[in-house]
Amino acid sequence: xxxxxxxxxxxGKTGGKIVAIQTTMPNHGPGALQPxxxxxxxxxxxxxxxxxxxxxxDFYDKLAKTCAHxxxxxxLFITAPHSASAFDLPSMLxxxxxxxxxxxxxx
Length: 107
Known about the structure:
The chain contains four helices and three strands; from the N terminus they run αβααβαβ. By secondary structure, it is α/β, with parallel strands linked by helices. The longest helix is centred in the middle third of the chain and has 11 residues, at about 60-70.
């Protein structure tokens, strides 16, 4: 969150590309995310599962709109070395999509 915001401020007047490589979920500062629920209750699994596909916060969506307005593209390269469920992709994906960037997820 903080690094992407700083990069956007640096490129704001000229435009450009941000290439972010993440191995862990952002858990400090602006844009911090919390781990999602690991165990789903079978009786409420459908409701919880629908929530898992929604972003936790709108920080990255707002940042992406600002980046797109300033002609700054964002590419995300995400690796989750310990567990595929340890990364909240639905919350981070809005940073790449509206800016014309791409998101690559490596397990």
